[in-house]
Design a protein that fits this description.
Blueprint: H1 3-9, H2 16-24, E1 28-30, E2 33-34, E3 46-51, E4 54-60, H3 69-72, E5 76-83
Antiparallel strand pairs: 1-2, 1-3, 3-4, 4-5
Amino acid sequence: MRIDKFLKVSRIIKRRSVAKEIADKGCITINDRIAKSSSDVSTNDTIVIKFGNKTLTILVKALLDTTKKDDAQKMYEIVSEDYEHDYRNE
């Protein structure tokens, strides 16, 4: 499954077009390799997504073509969620 579709179906990112844009900017890695929007994701892959000052690391648990809202979180496990603090604004 493509990374942009996985992020949309799992509801980590709400729109596939936004997931594609983030991936193509080099803000997503799969197993420590920079991913493009067309990069494939498999179960047990580790995905790191950088959103501004937030870095989200997830483990892929399942690949589903469609999901209901309640089932979306079964597709991944959050490994870590880190925030960079901006000290310049203090």
